Amino acid sequence: AAGTYHGLALKSDGSMWAWGNNNAGQVGDGTTIPSLTPKQIGTGFISVAGGQDHFAAIKSDGSLWTWGSNMSGELGDGTTTDSTTPKQIDTGFVSVAAGGSHTFAIKSDHSLWAWGANFMGQLGDGTTTSSLTPKQIGTSFRSVAAGYWHTLAIKDDGSLWAWGLGGYGQLGDETATNSLT
């Protein structure tokens, strides 16, 4: 997974490694000192996602972990305080996506959850109000991807959904307008 100036990778043994810019703790090693080489951050992980200045990851037990910048609540811990180490947010997740300053995750029941910045409606909840904690956006989702200020997701029936900033046609709906849902 890649963020703006930082990277994160999983080895086949489930160990997670991070490196690069660390101004908000996105390397996850407890410091804000940049790392020129990969550092092991944890074990037991199966999925990772990189945002602008934050990361999110899921362990094999379904627990969701976030760290790094939290200026807009993208860590989902109810605060706007950065975290220099991974912190557990919730359980029951199977996939995660990180955008500019927002995060999405899908639970094992296929419900879609979102939190963080919502300046352009990228959370898909019908508002432009940011959320400091995960909120359920919908059901029957199997895949999600987060852009800088927009989001795309696929439902169980194969239909594609898009919302957020649409000024450059990134929502694929033949317009250049934003969508809050």
What would you say this structure looks like, in words?
- The chain is built from no helices and 14 strands.
- It has 181 residues and is mostly beta strands.
- The mean pLDDT is 97.
Poorly predicted runs are none
Shape: globular
> How would you sum up the major sheet?
4 strands, antiparallel
Strand order of the largest sheet: 4-5-6-7
The portion of residues forming beta strands comes to over 45%
Average pLDDT:
97
Total DSSP E strands: 14
Along the chain, the helix and strand elements come as: EEEEEEEEEEEEEE
The secondary structure category is: mainly beta
Q: Which range best describes the helical content: under 10%, 10-25%, 25-40%, 40-55%, 55-70% or over 70%?
A: under 10%
Measured distance between first and last alpha carbons: 26 Å
Put simply, the count of helices is: 0
Q: Work out the radius of gyration.
A: 15 Å
TL;DR of this structure?
By secondary structure, the chain is mainly beta.
Descriptive labels:
14 strands, mainly beta, globular, 181 residues, four-stranded antiparallel sheet
